[in-house]
């Protein structure tokens, strides 16, 4: 079933490509249907997951590459555990939303929806892969659709941004590949479960800390951390709305997931030694990202920098190398995905109507678009970490988990939250409740079902997780506990 | 009869070549039929040849032929298919070129005879036969390189001929040493001699190995026997360049594997030639990639890149020398890599033929904005270049992956590291071409399409490299059974 969920989007993409030209308006219908089925499949697995048993479930495993002369086996092996299952659910959820909010795409719709679906396959694959080489293959496939989506359907300096994104990721991947190969050839397996069982290897040709650094470099660039974050504001700003949503909502989580699943879990000894460095990097990212939000003129760049700051909490939680911190980190990935995804949807709607994202130009939009304004406030408050909304739980857990271990860095993190979130609220206040500007008299509110539906669904998810976090928290906890035990 | 049957795949090609040449001067055909005849006959010959190879497998007709001069085994059969496939793609890619030429029949016949030569290079176990096969292949290629008959093409051919003659002489020297020492030209007899040789013969054996490596290094196009590559690649008709870069190189490696792994693999000097190949590999990769960085002509760039790629194959050969399982792992990794490389490099060259035909230039600078004018060609070339870089899930990734695997297991981690670093260097110029196609403004907005033949050949290559990239197991199995023969 998991394999079906992973590859169904690719099959859908093929179906879309084969559509005749005059039928191309059906592309979005196919994409939506396929995404809905994928979401249903993943949701079913979410409900069906045996929480008492924990560990990987829904495993599909078969030999992928097998050699007579070498003990090395590569497997096509996928499975989900408490850590990856909620992230897969997030991917499928935002996947459907990204298709819906693209309902009005007129430019080459076949290719657009095709690439969106390919992107879904690669993302689901990254979160489900149980073989490090398979993980890497999915990790790389994601570059192709992202490149085309940003460079063809983006705005502004889109080609430059697309290349910057690809080159940054690619640079990280090259380092990671060297690390993966050294690790796998030395341990004689690429199976993530096996690698985690073996733990740190010490007889590799390069020191273990070097392997650790090579692999985590790719994840840190993806997360991203300062100073390797500059691709993010560019890519976000120039990407089409739906791609910004996926980028902020899911792609950044590939980095966080990689750190938890690969770096911490496979090389716990090095990770313990490195944890203070990770905490420092995290604190720097949180503070720098937060400060940078203060000087942004563009709504999307503002949210992009707040993402840099928020993803810092993921790393901060990971650096705590304890169950609470890791749970917080994974919760933060989930809630940030929902909240920031929602913010990007809203900003995209404002941009579609006003054709500008310049904060100084926008003013007094609330009377024109009350629905968007209300949604914006909800998302803004969630981003701030208001109790009873999703963001609060995850940030609190991160701080709880980290405080003991890295006191100073945690305090720095708490300061960061005040800056970024406060500024977002202030911006919302100016943009929506400032003096009404006659230029925006004629703007319409979000009324279409494909606009309201996604927003309401995201709000529901944010409130649900905020009120009853245990539904995700317990799952994450069961997923990170084995990792924390190895680190213990 | 049994001998003839085992010689069948080659025989079919020889007959086809003969028919083409004779038919061209005797048959009273005119117009389109006359133009199409050589190509059709050539492809038919290749199809029969491949079918015959298939029948040999089905009937399990593996074994020696002509008193042990020739052998049909999984190794030779692998290369029979590989060379027949490459030649078919090359003929397809040459259709446009042949439209403009009077010498269609000769061209196709030469492609077929060179294919016979290369099949025999992989399928003979006797030094004399190997030498004859080498010459058959080389002479066919000398003429093909000169096919344009313009200044640059002729210069390239002359250069290729002169350096080729020197390399032939070196190969012959090496063979003469082996014969003089062992008293036999049969590789298995030589292997038996080497296995039991005392240390006094070591200097002579090393000398023979060096001569052979130098002579065959010319075919493999590795440093320091690569001087001809850029000029010949640039001057020859592009389909011939593609043919040289893929088939001739593969044939060179096939002979090297036969001679070194079978005859010199066990015993006295195996670690000597392993070290030698490791050094050549490191130097070839590094020099090839660094030189490729500076090229402005895309054919020259691919020429240097092919030197670097050959260096990567050699990593696998260097990994052969350790103990027995490594022997097979190293060899199989080279065979596998040759298979993936065939798809990749053919695809790249076909895309270049198609693009250069239309924009009238081989300069990388003129590839600006090709993506906007011909999105499918640009996407195909991108796939090939990324596969050459070694990015999953394309075929080239697995080639490198398996070669590095062999190296690491043979304790040649330093060599694998140099290989990985070189992949990073190579990404710079491969991706540079992609960048130019996608990000720069085209000189004109006029859209263009490849001719149907080129389009078909291109599709075959790209589908192949993606298919192998997603599911490499069948090709790997085939290369492993091919390599198992040499054990």
Structure, described:
The complex is a heterodimer of chains A (488) and B (487). Chain A is mainly alpha-helical. Chain A contains 19 helices and 2 strands. Chain A is globular and about 70 Å long. With 487 residues, chain B is mainly α. Chain B has a domain at 269-487. Chain B contains 20 helices and 2 strands. In chain B, a hairpin with a 4-residue loop joins strand 1 and strand 2 (70-72). The radius of gyration of chain B is 21 Å and the shape is globular. Chains A and B meet through strand 1, helix 5 and helix 7 of A and helix 14, helix 17, helix 18 and helix 20 of B.
Major beta-sheet overview of chain B: 2 strands, antiparallel
Strand order, main sheet of chain A: write it out: 1-2
Number of separate helices of chain B: 20
Spatial sequence of strands, sheet with the most strands of chain B? 1-2
Task: Spell out the blueprint of helices and strands.
The complex is a heterodimer of chains A (488) and B (487).
Chain A: H1 2-17, H2 27-48, E1 57-66, E2 73-80, H3 84-100, H4 109-128, H5 132-141, H6 143-153, H7 158-187, H8 192-198, H9 208-222, H10 231-238, H11 241-266, H12 268-293, H13 299-319, H14 323-354, H15 370-384, H16 390-403, H17 407-433, H18 449-467, H19 470-487
Antiparallel strand pairs in A: 1-2
Helix pairs in contact in A: 1-2, 1-4, 2-3, 2-4, 3-4, 3-11, 3-14, 4-5, 4-6, 4-11, 5-7, 6-7, 7-9, 7-10, 8-11, 9-11, 10-13, 11-12, 11-13, 11-14, 11-19, 12-13, 12-17, 13-14, 13-16, 13-17, 14-15, 14-16, 14-18, 14-19, 15-17, 15-18, 16-18
Chain B: H1 2-6, H2 8-26, H3 31-58, E1 63-65, E2 70-72, H4 74-99, H5 104-123, H6 127-145, H7 151-182, H8 187-196, H9 202-220, H10 229-235, H11 238-263, H12 270-293, H13 298-318, H14 324-359, H15 370-373, H16 375-389, H17 395-409, H18 413-439, H19 452-470, H20 473-486
Antiparallel strand pairs in B: 1-2
């Amino acid at each position: 079933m998991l394999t079906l969920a992973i590859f169904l989007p690719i099959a859908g993409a093929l179906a879309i490509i084969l559509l005749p030209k005059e039928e191309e308006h059906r592309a979005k219908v196919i994409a939506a249907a396929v995404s809905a089925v994928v979401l249903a499949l993943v949701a079913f697995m979410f409900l069906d997951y045996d929480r008492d048993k924990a560990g990987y479930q829904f495993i599909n495993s078969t030999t992928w590459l097998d050699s007579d002369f070498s003990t090395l086996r590569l497997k096509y092996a996928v499975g989900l555990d408490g850590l990856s299952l909620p992230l897969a659910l997030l991917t499928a959820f935002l996947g459907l939303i990204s298709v819906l909010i693209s309902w009005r795409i007129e430019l080459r719709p076949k290719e657009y929806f095709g690439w969106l679906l390919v992107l879904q396959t690669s993302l689901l694959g990254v979160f489900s892969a149980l073989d490090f080489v398979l993980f890497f293959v999915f990790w790389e496939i994601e570059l192709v659709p992202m490149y085309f989506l940003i460079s063809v359907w983006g705005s502004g300096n889109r080609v430059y941004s697309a290349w910057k994104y690809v080159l940054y990721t690619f640079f990280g991947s090259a380092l990671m590949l060297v690390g993966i190969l050294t690790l796998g050839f030395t341990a004689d397996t690429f199976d993530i479960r096996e690698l985690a069982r073996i733990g740190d290897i010490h007889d590799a040709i390069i020191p273990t800390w070097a392997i650790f650094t090579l692999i985590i470099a790719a994840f840190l660039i993806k997360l991203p951390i300062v100073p390797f974050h500059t691709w993010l504001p560019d890519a976000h700003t120039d990407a089409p709305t739906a791609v910004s949503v996926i980028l902020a909502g899911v792609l950044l989580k590939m980095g966080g997931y990689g750190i938890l699943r690969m770096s911490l879990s496979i090389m716990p000894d090095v990770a313990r030694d490195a944890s203070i460095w990770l905490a420092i990097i995290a604190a720097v990212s949180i503070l720098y990202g937060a400060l940078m939000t203060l000087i942004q003129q563009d709504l999307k760049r503002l949210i992009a920098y707040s993402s840099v700051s928020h993803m810092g909490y993921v790393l901060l939680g990971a650096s705590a190398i304890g169950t609470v911190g890791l749970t917080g980190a994974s919760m933060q990935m989930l809630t940030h995905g929902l909240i920031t995804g929602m913010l990007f949807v809203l900003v995209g709607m404002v941009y579609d109507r006003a054709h500008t994202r310049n904060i100084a130009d926008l003013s007094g939009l609330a009377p024109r678009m009350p629905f968007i304004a209300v949604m914006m406030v909800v998302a803004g408050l969630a981003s701030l970490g208001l109790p009873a909304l999703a963001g609060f739980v995850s940030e609190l857990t991160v701080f709880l988990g980290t405080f003991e271990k890295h006191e100073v860095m945690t305090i720095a993190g708490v300061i960061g939250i005040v800056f970024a979130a406060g500024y977002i609220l202030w911006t919302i206040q100016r943009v929506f409740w400032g003096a009404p500007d006659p230029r925006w008299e004629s703007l319409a509110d979000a009324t279409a079902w494909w606009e309201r539906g996604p927003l309401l669904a995201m709000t529901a998810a944010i409130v649900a997780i905020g009120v009853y976090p245990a539904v995700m928290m317990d799952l994450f906890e069961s997923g990170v506990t084995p990792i924390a035990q190895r680190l213990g | 009869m049994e001998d003839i049957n085992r010689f069948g795949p080659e025989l079919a090609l020889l007959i086809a070549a003969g028919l083409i040449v004779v038919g061209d001067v005797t048959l009273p055909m005119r117009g389109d039929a006359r133009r199409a005849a050589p190509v059709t006959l050539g492809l038919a010959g290749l199809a029969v040849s491949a079918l015959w190879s298939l029948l040999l497998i089905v009937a399990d007709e593996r074994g020696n032929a002509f008193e042990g001069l020739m052998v049909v085994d999984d190794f030779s059969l692998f290369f029979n298919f590989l060379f027949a496939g490459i030649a078919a793609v090359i003929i397809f890619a040459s259709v446009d070129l042949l439209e403009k030429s009077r010498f269609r029949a000769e061209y196709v016949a030469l492609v077929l005879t060179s294919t016979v030569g290369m099949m025999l290079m992989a399928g003979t176990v006797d030094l004399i036969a190997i030498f004859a096969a080498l010459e058959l292949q080389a002479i066919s290629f000398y003429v093909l390189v000169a096919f344009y008959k313009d200044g640059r093409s002729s210069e390239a051919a002359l250069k290729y001929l002169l350096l080729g003659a020197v390399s032939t002489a070196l190969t012959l020297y090496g063979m003469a040493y082996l014969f003089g020492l062992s008293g036999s030209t049969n590789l298995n007899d030589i292997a038996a001699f080497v296995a039991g040789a005392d240390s006094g013969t070591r200097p002579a054996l090393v000398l023979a190995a060096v001569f052979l490596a130098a002579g065959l290094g010319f075919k493999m196009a590795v440093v320091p026997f690569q001087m001809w590559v850029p000029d010949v690649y640039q001057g020859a008709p592009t389909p011939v360049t593609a043919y040289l870069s893929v088939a001739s190189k593969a044939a060179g490696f096939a002979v090297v594997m036969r001679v070194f792994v079978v005859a010199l693999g066990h015993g006295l000097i195996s670690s000597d030639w392993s070290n030698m190949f490791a050094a050549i590999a490191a130097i070839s990769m590094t020099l090839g990639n660094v030189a490729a960085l500076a090229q402005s002509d895309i054919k020259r760039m691919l020429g240097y890149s092919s030197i670097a790629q050959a260096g990567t194959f050699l990593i696998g050969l260097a990994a052969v020398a350790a103990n027995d399982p490594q022997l097979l792992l190293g060899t199989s990794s080279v065979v596998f890599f040759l298979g993936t490389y065939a798809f990749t490099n053919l695809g790249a060259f076909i895309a270049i033929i198609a693009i250069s035909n239309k924009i009238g230039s081989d300069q990388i600078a003129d590839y600006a904005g090709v993506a906007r004018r011909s999105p499918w060609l640009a996407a195909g070339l991108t796939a090939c270049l990324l596969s050459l870089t070694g990015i999953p899930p394309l075929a080239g990734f697995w080639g490198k992956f398996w070669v590095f695997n062999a190296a690491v297991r043979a304790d040649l981690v330093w060599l694998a590291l140099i290989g990985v670093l070189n992949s990073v260097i190579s990404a710079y110029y491969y991706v540079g071409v992609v960048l130019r196609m996608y990000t720069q403004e085209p000189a004109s907005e006029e859209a263009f399409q490849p001719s149907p033949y080129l389009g078909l050949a291109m599709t075959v290559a790209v589908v192949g490299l993606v298919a192998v990239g997603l599911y490499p197991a069948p090709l790997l199995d085939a290369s492993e059974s091919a390599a198992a023969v040499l054990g």
